[in-house]
Amino acid sequence: METKIAGSGPVIGGDDRISLLPDEIICRVLSLLETKYAVGTAVLSQRWKDLWTRVSSLDLDSGLVYKPLAEPRKLEPASDALKRRELEFRRFANKVLAQHQNLNSLTRFRFHFLRKVHSQTGFEGEFVFGPPMEEIDVMISGHKWMRCIPESFYTLRNLKFVTLSGVMLGSINKPAFLPSVKNLQLCSVKMGDVESLGRLLCGCPVLETLLLNCCYFSDKNDGDRFEVSLPWLKNLKIIDYEAIWADQMFPIVIEAPNLEDLYVEAFAELQFKGTSPLSCLHSAHVNVGVESYSYLIRLLTQISNAKKMHLFGKTLSPLSAVDDVLLPVFPNLTHLIIRTIRFEDSIWVLHSLLSSASKLQLLVLDTANPSGEDRMAWEDLETARTPECLLSSLEEIEIKELTIYPDVKNMIAYLLRAGAVLKKVSMHVNGNYLKRMGRKDLMPLLELSKRSSACKVELIFPDDKDIVSDSDDESNTDNSNDDGSNDIDDENNTSDDDRDDDFL
């Protein structure tokens, strides 16, 4: 007897509700699942046997085969288990690609093959991409690039999102035409030559996000120069951009008038077309290895409109060799991070940066061990004009990897004496230094004179996350410049509302 609940369909003794749906809706639901689970529904009934072969999305991920087995085989070496699992995935993926009824109708294709043992891919031929395709995500890890991208890829009009990793694109001899692509990510992709990359990017007229991570080229000429115009590009990320031969670098010239976020960590010479600053730039993370003063000044000028900036000591090193550093003005800069700065030869660079950023609110310094040479004229720095941001806007300073050397201590003392509106100075102690030297030489930092009576100074120790502040020491009141009270309002104890955790 069939049991029913008022207002509902059959529950016991009747068909399940999902089976009452049209095939089109069921296929749409199956398209949302990882393909492994969609194929698993074939055992439910005769009707479900072939439904998965009509899904519009395939999601093949070998990561599933690396999850612990419920009943691992006894006495099986780990390497043999990995080989067996990879073989199982290759067989499964090849079966799916062979049995799907119409690969040309796919709108989404995701294929992640993470090879953990030295083996061939086990896949022959190229994937099939048809005109409806909107999203392609192919990632191959292992020992060889996989040639699997068909020629039809370069003319997919509906394609919007592309992620390629560990694949061989070869030479692109014809202009690409991908009029809908907005997001393109190329990671460890091997191409025939620099011109092939140019043809691919020029074929993406509405591109908004571009990631180039370790792109390699089979053919490389000394005179190569990569130049491309991307008028709608908003996000650009370049990491370790180089040819197979590290000594054959070439300039990268990009025209991106609407760029908002820049992230570059490379030894290549990145340039932006024109000399004017990028008017829409919001954040810039720059770590380049080109040791040229004129190049660096040009690059800093082009990114000078950024509100948040992350610079590296190696990038700034050409400035240390110049007596009169003439930096551009950073009119919008509120957050500045400088990593691996060597204070014994860069304090004037830091002073110049602060002098050029009158609206700076947060300064983060990641220190490096000094060389031991004392070349700093602290007397000259004390008599120099105090940067405007130290007098009117800089509220928080964070120092990471703190070690107590004379130059570092002098730098901290200077910032505390000059910071008129400082609310918080946090110093994260270097773990290795702490093990060697202990806390003895660190505690005097809490007693340094402060210009701002509202400033709270903290020492943060790595092992136990212990935080010691100057407010814990009653003797610190003698160093305060207030009217006899060293209490700090709750408002002053709060962190800066504008701090961006992702940026840090």
From TrEMBL:
<dbReference type="InterPro" id="IPR050232">
    <property type="entry name" value="FBL13/AtMIF1-like"/>
</dbReference>
<feature type="compositionally biased region" description="Acidic residues">
    <location>
        <begin position="469"/>
        <end position="504"/>
    </location>
</feature>
<protein>
    <recommendedName>
        <fullName>FBD domain-containing protein</fullName>
    </recommendedName>
</protein>
<dbReference type="InterPro" id="IPR001810">
    <property type="entry name" value="F-box_dom"/>
</dbReference>
<feature type="domain" description="FBD">
    <location>
        <begin position="388"/>
        <end position="460"/>
    </location>
</feature>
<feature type="region of interest" description="Disordered">
    <location>
        <begin position="466"/>
        <end position="504"/>
    </location>
</feature>
<dbReference type="InterPro" id="IPR036047">
    <property type="entry name" value="F-box-like_dom_sf"/>
</dbReference>
<dbReference type="InterPro" id="IPR032675">
    <property type="entry name" value="LRR_dom_sf"/>
</dbReference>
<dbReference type="Pfam" id="PF00646">
    <property type="entry name" value="F-box"/>
</dbReference>
<dbReference type="InterPro" id="IPR006566">
    <property type="entry name" value="FBD"/>
</dbReference>
<dbReference type="InterPro" id="IPR053781">
    <property type="entry name" value="F-box_AtFBL13-like"/>
</dbReference>
<dbReference type="Pfam" id="PF24758">
    <property type="entry name" value="LRR_At5g56370"/>
</dbReference>
<dbReference type="InterPro" id="IPR055411">
    <property type="entry name" value="LRR_FXL15/At3g58940/PEG3-like"/>
</dbReference>
<dbReference type="Pfam" id="PF08387">
    <property type="entry name" value="FBD"/>
</dbReference>
